[in-house]
Amino acid sequence: MARVQPSVRDFDPVWKRICEEAEAAVRDEPLLGGLIHSGVLHHETLDCALAYRFALKLSSGEMSEQVLREIGDEAYARAPELGVAARADLTAVYERDPACHRYLQPLLYFKGYQALQCYRIAHWLWGEGRHDMAYLVQMRASEMFGVDIHPAARLGRGIMIDHAHSIVIGETAVVGDNVSMLHSVTLGGTGKEEQDRHPKIGHGVLIGAGAKVLGSITVGCCSRIAAGSVVLEDVPPSSTVAGVPARIVGEAGCDQPSVMMEHRFRNSEGV
Question: Name one GO molecular function term (predicted).
Fold first, then answer.
């Protein structure tokens, strides 16, 4: 009997699940067969699928899909950490977003996830000294997704950007692992200084919709920033801040705010 050769799917459970979900989606909605085959099933690995989507979404009259595909393939081949981060981000969306029911969804439909993977390629280009190409990727991602992340900013793994409309993250910003943020968040500066001028967000932080964190300040690990707040001073770890300007209003309420996604305040009686 002929021996069945293992495929990449057998060694990558995330990619295997995505492909299984894609096959089911084609059965349920045959009209999406072309999109799903070209975006998922045609590719051997998740990295290849991500490079394809990067090129498809950002191509324009100024930069062809073929050139961008070559850039994407090179980035994933030379920097395996990009694929690791992509899988962590995908899992974060699936686990934290109640509207996400399949791993397939962020890859094909969620602009927050796709914009984040475009940033990761831009950041790799920046690290390679290819600043002009990184700026081009930043510009096209901003135009396509409404997410503007400077390629020099440093973002960790397991990031979820929910809805992802009007996100701005500045050049010297640092975002830790397992951070969740909603739409219209700004991690910005407070003036024209050219050095370290943007926030440093610790691991496990939850940033509510419309929050603005400004200046070279530190937001401690596992803290919460309430929706609509303007944060101008350091935030201690495991605390909740709210208001304009933001003030400490209590503890974070749980060990992992970014995972629990709990935005409500509770008083000492738990109400």
Answer: serine O-acetyltransferase activity
CATH number of 12-146: 1.10.3130.10
Burial 152-182 (b: 16+ CB within 10 A, else e): bbebbbbbbbbbbbebbbbebbbbbbbbbbb
Whether the model pTM is above 0.85:
yes
Tell me yes or no: is domain 153-270 CATH 2.160.10.10: yes
CB 50 within 8 A of CB 86: yes
Q: How confident is the model at residue 4 (pLDDT cuts 50, 70, 90)?
A: very low
Instruction: Please state the separation of Cα 157 from the chain's center in Å.
Output: 8
Q: Please state the domain extents for the chain.
A: 12-146, 153-270
Single-letter amino acid code for the residue at 114: Q
Which among 52, 50, 43 is positioned nearest to 9, based on CA atoms?
Answer: 43
Residue 113: Cβ-neighbour burial (10 angstroms; 0-12, 13-18, 19+): buried
Separation between Cα atoms, residue 70 and residue 51, nearest integer Å = 8
